[in-house]
Amino acid sequence: MDPEREAAKKLAKRMILIIMGGFLVPVITVVLLSQLAVDSMGESGKNSPGMTPEEVAQRLKPVGEVTIATGPSAEKQEKTGEEVVKEVCGACHTAGVLNAPKIGDKKAWTERFKIGEAALLKHDIDGIRQMPPRGGNPALSDREVQAALEYMARQSGVKIKEQAPPLAAAAAMGSTGKTVFERTCAVCHVPGAANAPKFGDKAAWKPRIKTGIENLYNSAIHGKNAMPPKGGNPALSDADVKAAVDYMVSQSK
Q1: Is a pLDDT exceeding 60 seen at residue 231?
Q2: Left if phi > 0, otherwise alpha if psi is -120 to 50, otherwise beta: which for 16?
Q3: What is the structure's pLDDT at 222?
Q4: Which CATH number fits domain 81-155: 2.30.30.240, 1.10.10.10, 3.40.50.720, 1.10.760.10?
Q5: What confidence score (pLDDT) does residue 205 get?
Q6: I need a surface site. Which of 147, 200, 234, 252 has the fewest CB within 10 A?
């Protein structure tokens, strides 16, 4: 073989190796450095306090939490009778707006209490004529309404017992009285048969109401003139008859 040609081949091989080495060394270096960096981060993640699951959860925890109060502290605080009167009832009962009995007018309040506190309470809860239910404040409880009624009565010189009668009796009165009236009393009191005062006739009921609620109860239970005892239905209890009388009186004032 020609010595010069042999020398040229060897030189070419060396050049190729040099070029490949120059290319591979940087690539290998970069790969090794990258692997070293990844391994370093992995070890740091294992040992770093900020990378533990507990601390990640802590960092994600909300700044504040909303708690809904329960128990006695969350229950509604009932207002006193005086507070209810100042906030609601006084708007009409102080000045006597729309014929509302004025606070302090003993005669007006005594007249109304003749039908009984239960009937009055029923009016206050359900409303009557120009007075809206619960004086216009539906947020008031039955007991708050009763407390206000009793406060106004006491301020007007009417002697009543505290928290009497039971609220349950007042609540039941309206439905019982109306039912008894419609099934028994209406036969005579709607058309005014045998001189019975017509239902809703204020002029006819006024003199009867003045005699007192007990006299009306007695007449209805035992009978009077053309009206038979218990309106002709002896199956009615005295309480049923009284409830019917209260209902008719309340709707005829």
Answers
A1: yes
A2: alpha
A3: 93
A4: 1.10.760.10
A5: 93
A6: 234
